[in-house]
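FYI - complex with S-adenosylmethionine, inputs then prediction.
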Amino acid sequence: MKSPPSPSSRPDGRPDARPDGRRNRAGRPDRRGGKVAPDPTRDIAFDIVEGVIVHRRMLDTSLEHSAAARTAEPRDRAAAHRLAATVLRHMGTANEVLSPFLKREPPEPVRVVLLIGVAQLLFLDTPPHAAVATSVALARRRGLVPFAGLVNAVLRRVAAGGVEALEGLDQPRLDVPAWLWQSWGRLVRPIAGALGHEPPLDLTIRPGCDAPPGGEVMPNGSVRFAAGTVKVAELPGFAEGAFWVQDMAATLPARLLNVTAGERVADLCAAPGGKTAQLACAGAEVFAIEREGRRLERLRANLARLGLADVKVIHADAATWRPEAPLDAILLDAPCSATGTIRRHPDAMWIKRPRDIATMTEGQDRLLAAARDMLRLGGRLVYAVCSLQPEEGEQRARAAQAMGLVPDPFTPEELAFLPQARTPEGWLRTHPGMLADRGGMDGFFAARFRRG
Ligand SMILES: C[S@@+](CC[C@H](N)C(=O)[O-])C[C@H]1O[C@@H](n2cnc3c(N)ncnc32)[C@H](O)[C@@H]1O
C-alpha cells in the first residue's frame, strides 16, 4: 500500500497556517521519521464525536472533556465544533457509505476516525488528499497505528467514489434514529429533510435599536444571517446590547403572551434569557426564575449586556417558588427533550432515548400545575417547549386543560405572519421544514391558557 500524501489541509479547505505541514511543536516523529503536523481541529473533533457516540455525552460536555480543546485556539475549537456537528448530522449516511468497505466491525475509535474522514470527503470542502492523510495521521496520534492502513485504504476508496456515493441514498431516513423518525408522524419528511443543513443565525433586535447590516428580515422581524457568515460578538451593536441571538421560532412564545407595560410577569425557566429579554423590553415587571447556578450566571451576564437591570433574577426551583402576590402572566418555557433544536445540536439525536421523553413530561406537568397556582384569576399562561415530540407539546396542552386551565387559542390575526404554524386547536407548532427555502426554523410548540 502506498504511503498517504503529506498531511496539510484544514477540514474547511482553508489554507494551513503552516504550509509545510511537517513540523509540530511537540516535534513528534511519525513512522517515516518525519514530524507529525499538529492538528488540534481534528483531535478535538475526535474527542467530541467519540464523547457523543461512545460515551453518550452531549457535544458541549465532550468539548469540555477534550484535553486538546483546553490549549487550542478559538478558531480551531470552532472548526472542530463544525466538523463534529457535520459528522453527527450525517452519521447514518456516512456509515452507509462506509459499509461496503468494511468486512468486519472496526473498533469504535477507528470508526470515529473514518466518520471524520467521510464527513470531510462528502460534506465539507476538504481536498480529498488532505481528508485521507489527516485521518491517517489522526489514527496514529490516537494510538491506532495498526489501523492506519485500513483508514488509508477505506478513505481512498470513498474519495475515489466521490459524492456520487450519495446518489440514491435516502439521507434524511438514514440520518435520523428510527424512534425519532416514527415519532414525527406526517411531518417527518419536511423535518428530517431540513436537519441536514447548518442552521442560520437569527437575531432579535431590541425595540428602538438598529439591526446590524446585511441580514434578512424574517416575517416575525428576526434578522437572519446565513450559517458561518458573521461573528455575533463582532457585529455592530453587540456590545451596546442592540440585539440577542434567538431563533425566529423561539421568539414566538413570549410574543404570544402579549404582555403590556407594568404587568407582573414570571419567566419560570429563564436561562439563557432570550425570552426574558423580550418580556422586559415590553415593559413588564419580570421575575426570571432559573434553577441551575451556571445557567443563572449566563442569564445575568446576558441581561447585563442588554442593560435590562430591572429584571428580578431569582435562583429557585419554579416548581416550589411562589410570588408574593398572584401574577398577571407567566411564560413556562419548560425543560424538554429539545428535539426541536436538533439542527443546532445534532448530538441530541444520538444521546436521547424514548424513555427520556416520559421523564420530561412528569416535570412539565409539575411546572404546569405550579404555574397555574401562581396566576391571578384571568391571568395568562403560555406553555412552550422546543420539542417536536407530541408528548411534550400537544399532549401537555391537553394535560393543562385537565388541570383546570382554560384554553385561550392563538388567533389567526396573531399568527398572520406565519399561518402555517397555527394548529386547528389554536396552538403553535413550528418545525425545521417551515420556511425551509429561507433557512427553516427550530421546532417549537406553544399553547396559551387563562386561569378560570
Ligand atoms: C428551555 S430552557 C429555557 C430557555 C429560555 N427560556 C430562553 O428563552 O432563553 C429551560 C431552562 O429551565 C431551567 N429549569 C429546568 N427546570 C427548572 C425548574 N424546575 N425551575 C427553574 N428553572 C428550571 C433549565 O436550567 C434551563 O435553563
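Residues 1-8, 15-34 have pLDDT under 50 and may be disordered. The CA atoms of residues 191 and 374 lie 36 Å apart.
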